[in-house]
Design brief:
Largest sheet: 7 strands, mixed
Distance between the termini: 51 Å
Order of helices and strands: HHHEHEEEHEEHEEEEHEHHHHHH
Helix content: 55-70%
Structural class: alpha+beta
Number of helices: 13
Length: 412
């Protein structure tokens, strides 16, 4: 609070000192004559100040648009699995070890729950998972290792494109059984039936497509789904709901089942929209901040233009009156008053576009997968600022354009 107050105080003092110095630098005769406001220096300063506001507004609108486009792109990106209608619940290790079969049977009593699978990780929730090294065909590589139950791929809607899916018998196998994604397959030229030399030698039984379990900031990853008889607590449960099911009723049934099995453990039922909100919270926060700053910049620009129009119309009353006496219509007067501001906005747009393009391009470089640089965003920003500016100028100038020219000329 003290720092904020100090910054506000210093800003206020500086903002007041410069205009005071600038005003007192003019000869008194010029000010008393009444042409001080029309001096080239005064007009130049006002134009520069409002131009800075226009440039900032255009840049922020461009930035907010591309941040929103990138967020939409990330949320609609095909991750290689069917994330809809999946509820995720993290169990305690004790509940999984002692009651996971009871847990599954109780959940499947509800008609809208199709199946339940388990894994050691909450997939698609972070940028890294348990990493393991291995050797295959004399080539060393690393991969994300996700321990799962045999039905995990079916529950998640991940098709096995080559080889076979896991079976219940794989849980009884003496060696781990692996299914890799396509990225890993291509990285070391894997084939079905290869023996992977890892922490425990295992057999590769199949391959999925390119499954994306990290955020779009990262590129493709080597991913292995592993089924083993080793007693790892796979405490993250994935609950597949039927299409068109009553989600509220299903969640209530899940909560009741959990409360009956372990009432002391704090459970949370999540869906993938919540998980993605957490995964992309930085981008969401950035979007919100830029949107707020864009609105503030537009409001400040609007106030600046409004004051500038008030100033100009007062100093140009005689000119407006003379034009109307010589037959100028209200539309022609409004066009005259708007033209200079449109010209300023267009120049500011030309200056802002290269800066905006460079800044957005650098920001998008932090993503392995990114939205295209749509050209229409730039004219959209121009259209928004032009519309607000022309509306403001027209609204404020309407009274001056409708004034009786006799009154304006007589006052002069």
């Amino acid at each position: 609070v003290l720092i904020t107050g100090g910054v506000a105080l210093i800003t206020g003092v500086v903002a007041g000192l410069y205009p005071s110095w600038y005003v007192t630098s003019f000869p008194p005769a010029l000010v008393l004559k009444g042409s001080f406001g029309l001096s080239p220096s005064g007009r130049k300063l006002r134009t520069i100040l409002v131009s800075v506001q226009f440039i900032v507004s255009i840049l922020l609108i461009i930035g907010a648009s591309f941040v929103q486009l990138q967020n939409d792109y990330m949320r609609s990106f095909s991750l290689g699995f069917d994330k809809d209608q999946i509820a995720i619940v993290e169990l305690s290790g004790e509940l999984y070890n002692k009651h996971h079969e009871t847990y599954v049977n109780r959940l499947k009593e509800f008609p809208d729950i199709e199946d339940v699978a388990f894994a050691m990780e909450k997939v698609a929730s972070k940028d890294g998972y348990s990493t393991n090294g291995a050797v295959l065909k004399q080539k060393e590589f690393h991969f994300f290792m996700i321990m799962t139950s045999p039905n995990f791929l079916r529950v998640m809607g991940i098709p096995v494109e080559e080889g076979r899916d896991f079976s219940l018998s794989d849980e009884l196998s003496e060696e781990p059984v692996y299914i890799f994604n396509e990225t890993a397959k291509l990285a070391v030229n894997m084939e079905q039936g290869d023996i992977l030399q890892s922490w425990i030698p295992g057999r590769i039984i199949g391959f999925t497509g390119n499954v994306k379990f990290t955020s779009l900031r990262n590129g493709e990853n080597n991913i292995a789904f592993v089924v083993s008889k080793m007693p790892y607590p796979m405490s993250v449960s994935y609950i597949r709901l039927k299409a068109g099911s009553d989600v509220h009723a299903a969640v209530n049934h899940i909560r009741k089942t959990l409360a009956d099995l372990d009432p002391a453990y704090p459970f949370d039922v999540q869906f993938y929209d919540t998980i993605f909100n957490h995964l992309y919270h930085k981008e969401e926060n950035l979007r919100s901040l830029i949107t707020v700053f864009s609105l503030l910049a537009i409001i400040i620009s609007l106030v600046g233009v409004f004051n500038l129009v008030v100033f100009d119309t007062q100093y140009r009353r005689k000119e407006i009156g003379l034009r109307k006496v010589h037959g100028a219509t209200i539309g022609e007067v409004l066009k005259m008053l708007n033209s200079s501001y449109i010209y300023i906005v267009l120049i500011c747009f030309v200056l802002a576009v290269p800066v905006g393009y460079y800044g957005i391009n650098k920001w998008l470089e932090s993503f392995a997968y990114k939205t295209p640089m749509f050209w229409w965003v730039y004219p959209l920003a121009l259209l928004i600022v032009l519309t607000i500016t022309v509306g403001t100028v027209t609204y404020q100038s309407w009274q001056a354009a409708n004034a009786n020219p006799v009154d304006s000329l007589k006052s002069e």
